[in-house]
Amino acid sequence: MMDPGTPLRSSQDDGEETAKPEPGPAAPAGSLTIVGLGPGPAQWLTPAAQAAIDAASDLIGYGPYLDRIPARDGQTKHASDNRVEIDRATHALQLAAAGKTVAVVSGGDPGVFAMAAAVFEALEAGEPAWLALPIAIEPGVTAMLAAAAKAGAPLGGDFCAISLSDNLKPWEVVTARLEAVLAADLVTCLYNPISKARPWQLRAALELAARHRDAQTPVIFARAVGRPDEALRILTLAEAIEAAATADMATLVIIGASSTRLIARPGDVAPYVYTPRSVTRSPCATSQGRT
Ligand code: SAH
């Protein structure tokens, strides 16, 4: 085994010092960082994400996310609509290839239903020269972690995340995945639960959940977590079905597993919601199986 104190030899140390490397294509001077802003408040932005924002010559993102970042001299903001992610990603790659230090900003974590995948999609379809660009991702606190932290420990057992948006996948795929994870008794986090264009999907998803879970199963509607208009509602599954239309695009929904439960607290305060880490029964035994 190598002595941990022994420094690794670089390729220049292997007796080839005199051999000059073949000149390759000039590496572009620019770079691209995809930055997670967290759910909202500045204290949930990591120092590394802040440093990437500070270093950028160009910031790209959905307008409301860019608005969260104070303007500074010498930095250009390129705001765009929320529904043009691939165009935005392509623009970011073009700017980086032209030598800019680009930061693409995304709410929450950029890898969770967000810009990082859009950048890689644009990279895959784009100019071969872009492959030489340094691309980095700075993670952020994703909505389900922020929501879970407000409620207690609902993600203490196995869990999953599903986007209810059927903009990028057929609704049949969403329901097939929901069926599978509900049958497996996973805590299920629903991103993009509802929008003006998708008004009925959340209720349908919760009704599907009721075929696998008891009507008393805790369901969390966590709205605008970390922002001034934050609202956390802890409901039963039966109540959540009736309240589905009151959720909105700023809401993250967590459907408990069969073991997820509440701890009541004295006074007029919300109970804690938690899912124990230990599991003793198989999903087949815990699923209600009412299909
Ligand atoms: N990249 C983001 C998710 C983008 S999908 C992240 O990691 O959080 C957008 C969905 O995220 C919203 O429809 C909502 O379900 C959820 N969301 C984002 N910010 C939220 C917040 N502050 N509170 C509750 N849910 C939020």
List descriptors.
291 residues; five-stranded parallel sheet; 27% helix; disordered C terminus; binds S-adenosyl-L-homocysteine
Q: Quickly count the helices.
A: 9
* SSE order, one letter for each helix or strand: EHEHEHEHEHEEHEHEEHEEEH
Q: Biggest β-sheet, characterized?
A: 5 strands, parallel
Spatial order of strands in the largest sheet: 3-2-4-1-5
Percentage of β-strand residues: 15-25%
Average pLDDT, rounded to a whole number, is 90
Oligomer: single chain
Structural class designation: alpha/beta
Helix content: 25-40%
Query: What distance lies between the first and last C-alpha atoms, to the nearest angstrom?
Result: 58 Å
Topology overview:
Blueprint: E1 31-36, H1 47-55, E2 58-62, H2 63-67, E3 76-80, H3 85-97, E4 101-106, H4 115-125, E5 135-138, H5 143-151, E6 152-153, E7 159-163, H6 171-183, E8 187-191, H7 201-209, E9 218-223, E10 231-236, H8 237-243, E11 251-255, E12 261-263, E13 272-274, H9 283-286
Parallel strand pairs: 1-4, 1-5, 2-3, 2-4, 6-13, 7-8
Antiparallel strand pairs: 8-11, 9-10, 9-11, 12-13
Helix pairs in contact: 3-4, 7-8
Bound molecules: S-adenosyl-L-homocysteine.
Residues 39-40, 106-109, 112-114, 142-143, 147, 191-193, 222-227, 249-252 line the site of S-adenosyl-L-homocysteine.
